[in-house]
UniProtKB/TrEMBL annotation:
This is Acyl-CoA hydrolase. The lineage of its organism: Bacteria, Bacillati, Bacillota, Bacilli, Bacillales. GO terms for biological process: acyl-CoA metabolic process; fatty acid catabolic process. Keywords: Hydrolase. It comes from Paenibacillus tianmuensis. It comes from the Bacteria. One of its GO terms (molecular function) is long-chain fatty acyl-CoA hydrolase activity. GO terms for cellular component: cytosol. The keyword Hydrolase applies. Belongs to the acyl coenzyme A hydrolase family. InterPro entries: Cytosol_ACT (IPR040170), HOTDOG_ACOT (IPR033120), HotDog_dom_sf (IPR029069), Thioestr_dom (IPR006683). The keyword Coiled coil does not apply. Pfam families: 4HBT.
Amino acid sequence: MEIRYVRESRTYKTSRIFPTDVNNHNTLFGGKLMSYIDDIASISASKHCRQSIVTASTDSVDFLLPIRPTDSVCLESFVTWTGKSSMEVFVKVITEDLKSGKRDIAATSFLTFVALDENRKPVIVPQVIPETQEEIMLHESAKQRAEMRKFRREGSKEFSDHLQMKFPWE
């Protein structure tokens, strides 16, 4: 079985917050941050498996602090755990006040990606080996998140069976 270290998938992205990026509270629009998160997480997943990938789920995006126009926002992502063809990716969002230099964790997120072959069929991904304390902690707690993901997905499928697909004008 092929293995890779967490550090091999580690990816960073830093952005400035512009007036067009903020909402009516003058903080970064949540959808914009979610787009950044999916983008960087997909790069980490691709670096880990070196295959085409698809987002299977966004488990959570926890907005912890508002991100202001005076901040830069730095996203760090890496693969924390792998299944057979799936990869859990953790994204940490760090703000930095560009005047004072003060940094804070503004958000965290877990996403799952699946590796696909050229026929869009799932393929086996390398196992991941954590090294740092943070990586080990995330790796050791990943199995519990995977079980919650599976339970939530089954519930979502069951829930969707009860939803209508007709438009009101039909």
